[in-house]
From TrEMBL:
Component of the eukaryotic translation initiation factor 3 (eIF-3) complex, which is involved in protein synthesis of a specialized repertoire of mRNAs and, together with other initiation factors, stimulates binding of mRNA and methionyl-tRNAi to the 40S ribosome. The eIF-3 complex specifically targets and initiates translation of a subset of mRNAs involved in cell proliferation. This is Eukaryotic translation initiation factor 3 subunit E. The keyword Protein biosynthesis applies. Residues 95-269 form the PCI domain. Component of the eukaryotic translation initiation factor 3 (eIF-3) complex. The eIF-3 complex interacts with pix. Interacts with mxt. The keyword Transcription regulation does not apply. It is found in: Cytoplasm. Belongs to the eIF-3 subunit E family. InterPro entries: eIF3e, PCI_dom, WH_DNA-bd_sf. Its main location: cytoplasm.
Length: 310
């Protein structure tokens, strides 16, 4: 009977009736065990249906369920396992760039889950574009920049695009002129990218803010004219932008209108924010370690079972 439900769900999906397909697959997953021969296909089908229906909450749940299945089960070969992770990485972009919590989730999965970072580095380094963009637009995850920079440096010989090069110019070479040129190129890249085009303004705003923050770490007193040049803005626009930053409490600085200078104040990092970032990083790494231990225990138990059988 459940085989017929599976075939009916597949038929509905191929006809474009994704709502009914998702419903059938939901009940299939409720009834059948993880060891069922169709279970993995059903997980993929359910995720695809929810993506096409744009049910992003359900899609995120299905994405996490599929990730857990892939991580906790063995496949025919290591290459097959790697391919499953690579496919999941690509499909997850639909969810991460549409779900409200996606920008945090993409950083945790792509940057802090070693198996998925390894899959990106091995099979799909072009995904670094989306990881870099997510870190740039996510103001609350600035702590991830240090780890992102390391990955971009490691992979710079296999993959480069204006977004990753912008990060490299800014945080590795401290080449503000190069970063300015790359930011100009980033505008066209983000605008024409299917997943990133919706956050163009946010990307440019945060990229300028990163440039400004990095420049300010080096200079205590900055000419507005020089700053405008580094940010690809005219002088009046740059002055207005800085005023808004100060007004919104995102910048501790004063403007000397007579001299046309920005004088920086001290900007200590909040201990609370440091603690949150470390806890987030530790929780993800602890979960990864737990998964490795459980996998080894399962393999050990299987060996014991085989030995006792013989």
């Amino acid at each position: 009977m459940m085989e017929d439900v599976y075939k009916l769900a597949k038929f509905r999906y191929e006809c474009g009736n994704y709502k009914h397909s998702a419903s059938y697959l939901y009940f299939y997953l409720l009834v059948m065990p993880h060891t069922d021969k169709n279970y993995l296909n059903v997980l993929w089908g359910k995720l695809a249906s929810e993506i096409l229906l744009q049910n992003w909450d359900s899609a995120l749940e299905d994405l996490n369920r599929l990730r857990e299945y892939i991580d906790n089960n063995s496949f025919a070969s290591p290459l097959h396992h790697l391919q499953q992770r690579a496919w999941l990485i690509h499909w997850s972009l639909f969810v991460f760039f549409n779900h409200i919590k996606g920008r945090d989730a993409i950083i945790e999965m792509f940057l802090y889950r070693a198996n998925y970072l390894n899959a990106i580095q091995t099979m799909c380094p072009h995904i670094l574009r989306y990881l870099a963009a997510a870190v740039i637009v996510n103001h609350s995850r600035r702590g991830a920049l240090k780890d992102l920079v390391k990955v971009i440096q490691q992979e710079s010989y296999t993959y480069k695009d204006p977004i990753t090069e912008f990060i490299e110019h800014l945080y590795v070479n401290f080449d503000f002129e190069g970063a300015r040129r790359k930011l100009h190129e980033c505008q066209a890249v983000v605008f024409n990218d299917f997943f990133l085009t919706g956050c163009l303004e946010e990307f440019l705003e945060n990229a300028r803010l990163l440039t400004f923050e990095t420049f300010c770490r080096i200079h205590q007193c900055i000419s507005i004219e020089m700053l405008a040049e580094k940010l690809n803005m005219d002088v009046d626009e740059a002055e207005c932008w800085i005023v808004n930053l100060i007004r919104n409490a995102r910048l501790d600085a004063k403007i000397d209108l007579k001299l046309g200078h920005v004088v920086m104040g001290t900007q200590p990092i909040s201990p609370y924010q440091q603690l949150l970032e470390k806890v987030d990083s530790l929780s993800v790494r602890s979960e990864a370690l737990q998964g490795i231990i459980e996998k080894k225990l399962r393999a050990k138990n299987q060996d014991v079972s085989r030995n006792s059988f013989y």
